[in-house]
Specification:
The chain is about 30% helix and about 30% strand. The chain is built from eight helices and 13 strands. It has helices at about 15-30, 50-55, 60-75, 150-155, 175-190, 235-245, 250, 255-259; strands at about 1-10, 35-40, 75-85, 90-95, 105-110, 130-135, 135-140, 160-165, 190-195, 200, 205-210, 210-215, 230-235. It is globular, with a radius of gyration of 17 Å. The strands form three sheets. The protein has a six-stranded mixed sheet. Strand 7 (about 135-140), helix 4 (about 150-155) and strand 8 form a beta-alpha-beta unit. The mean pLDDT is about 95. It is of the alpha/beta class.
């Protein structure tokens, strides 16, 4: 079994080093020593658009600090951060650093949130991401992607057994966040690890926390909606295999209709 933890934290918008320090402090202080930590969406910068170019300049040093921590603690660390594509476009990029400190995978957020005019500040990614780590296939996604179930189903068809989703989801819609997260777990018979920001943003937006670790049956505890915390849970390959063997959803699907 793999011990995972959602690192639900407050974010100081635009203050990259302060946020990196807080994330490191929470991981270093975790007595349970998880095998994998998931951070919130844009945990280094938040959604303060005016600070984004400066934040991108600090991306490399932030990832270097997390890589060193991952190697020292022998744990994987994932989350999303601002980055630039090879063409120089801003991206909301989710990263996955292995326990050896190496960047093993990244995913650029595909679905940009129109209500926040996110497309005016970011360019979307164009590919889903599924990869193997320690014998488990992970699928990566960011916040608004959650509302598009086909993305998760396609990752499941590519073998994903565990989904990692980082978010900055407001408290006013937090029940949608947790309901859809459990639904994605159940419909794909996969584990779903969600880490959401908590606290208040620079513009007064209150974020809803409620990070969760859902089993393939939609079961699992939720974190507080208001407080920083580390939410721990276990991922079991046996549970995934058992769930998928009892109701063979992927064998029974009618491909021409499903997709």
């Amino acid at each position: 079994n793999v011990l995972v933890a959602a690192l639900q934290m407050k974010i100081a918008d635009g203050q990259v080093q302060k946020n990196v320090n807080r994330a490191k402090e929470m991981i270093e202080g975790d007595a349970k020593r998880a095998d994998l930590y998931l951070l919130p969406e844009l945990f280094t910068s938040g959604y303060q658009f005016s600070s984004w170019d400066k934040a991108i300049e600090e991306t490399a040093s932030a990832l270097e600090e997390l890589s060193t921590l991952a190697k020292d603690k022998e744990c994987a660390i994932a989350g999303s951060i601002l980055a630039r594509s090879d063409e120089g476009q801003r991206r909301n990029r989710m990263f996955f650093i292995g326990k050896d400190g190496h960047l093993l995978a990244h995913y650029d957020k595909v679905h940009l949130f129109g209500l926040m005019n996110e497309d005016e500040h970011l360019s979307p990614g164009t590919e889903i991401k599924v990869f193997d780590y320690e014998g488990i296939k992970f699928g990566l996604a960011v916040c608004y992607d959650l509302r598009f179930p086909v993305q998760f189903y396609r990752m499941a068809l590519k073998g994903a057994q565990v989904f990692l989703l980082c978010a900055e989801w407001p408290k006013v819609r937090r029940k949608i966040l947790t309901t859809l997260s459990r639904a994605r777990a159940m419909e794909t018979q996969s584990y779903f690890l969600l880490c959401n920001r908590v606290g208040e943003g620079h513009d007064g937006t209150v974020f809803g926390g409620s990070s969760l670790i859902s089993s393939p049956l939609g079961e699992g505890e939720e974190a507080s909606a208001t407080e920083e915390c580390l939410l721990h849970g276990e991922i079991s390959g046996e549970v995934i295999d058992d769930t998928r063997s009892k109701i063979k959803v992927f064998d029974d699907r009618v491909a021409d209709i499903d997709l």
